[in-house]
Design goal:
13 helices, single chain, 393 residues, Aspartate Aminotransferase, domain 1, four-stranded mixed beta sheet, alpha/beta, 2 domains, Aspartate Aminotransferase, domain 2, 17 strands
Length: 393
Amino acid sequence: MITYKEDKNHVMNTYSRYPIKLVKGNGCKVWDSEGNEYLDFVAGIAVNSLGHSHPEVVNAIKEQSEKLIHCSNLYWNENQIELANIICENSFGEKVFFANSGAEANEAAIKLARKYGTLKYGGKKYKIIAATNSFHGRTYGALTATGQFKYQKGFEPLVPGFKYVKYNDIDDLESAIDDETCAVMLEPIQGEGGINEGDKNYLQEVRKLCDEKDILLIFDEVQTGIGRTGKLFAYEHFGIVPNVMTLAKGLGSGFPIGAMIVDEKADVFVPGDHASTFGGNPLACAIGIKVMKIISDKSFLDQIKDKGDYLKKHLFYIKEKYSIMEEVRGKGLMIGCKLNMQEGGEIVKQAMKKGLLINIVNHNVLRFVPPLIVTKSEIDQALEILEDVFKNF
């Protein structure tokens, strides 16, 4: 058996990895190469929506892999059509473009916004406004849209035509809009930025501004979408709809897939404008169909909200006992706990030693994004470990 110490000799150093090698998963639990068991509240960073090795996902993979794994988008495939139909029937969408990741979906949205500005305004509208503390991916356009310098440092010059504004500050956004603005790109809840919730009034005002100025509103729901917040899509919490929405992470429950959804106004791509060799392949879409059918069920979504409320309520109880916790925020099973310390990495390490996987965002916010199938007893177990860790800080 290759150990992680040997394995890393030929793996590029792009992650600061923890010293364990995961080899097996089932439901909300994973095991490392030494046989240690962990309760997984990272879930591939909000990816394993139905947990590890969900039987219906495994069956979808088996059945489709025996039929057709990949074919070019030069031809139609039935699964892609069905998944697009399911997404549109359950959202504002009119059309779907399939990719392989959130970054790819966001790149598609950036290109689409500029194509819209070109078609309607002869290219005079090309600027895109994004928020500080946002995260949209690591590819060049998505990296430029990401309003965090720490990710951009060393990769300049970035893509021109982007502006950044304070999140939840409508005056700052309004002052940034000019005659060259074609789109506003926001996360309804900022994930990597620290689980920062969008204010309902703010997002409604953003929608009004975009309508008044003929600007596309793009919602990056790569992390918030597919039931994560207790609604199928997070925009449903705010009483508005975007023109464009990007999805990935939970849509494949561990299998790579991304999607860009557009309304009629934003449906401006024609053949040759954009493409993806692997995007929307039959295997990825077969899994996406299964995931969407399970998670879009109202009773399933209600359970997510109930379990999220349960987790949040008990985190508030812990906050009252330990001064190390400063704030609890988030919706559904996307919860952040801001710590009263500058760096919270040691909390994550100590939790891992006790059998709980969590992670830290923006230096001092613990992020809880367990599989959506997590049980209350598993939540209790995670809370018990977390409290045990806090006793030593």
